[in-house]
Specification:
Elements (H helix, E strand, L loop, with lengths): L1 H13 L4 H26 L7
Length: about 50
């Protein structure tokens, strides 16, 4: 799983000199963590979901 992730992200690391690549990489990782947090919260505590 980690090898596939590294293979997907390798082209981005080659373009590190471009500042937009760094901003995009950071924002996508942050978005992924936020999504995983809310999905896990909804799975573990479904009673707190608002209608």
């Amino acid at each position: 799983m980690i090898g596939g992730l590294v293979a997907l992200l390798e082209p981005l690391f080659k373009n590190r000199s471009n500042p937009l690549t760094i901003v995009g990489l950071i924002s996508s990782v942050l978005s992924a963590f936020i999504t995983v947090y809310f999905v896990l919260q909804a799975m573990t505590n479904p009673n707190n979901l608002q209608p």
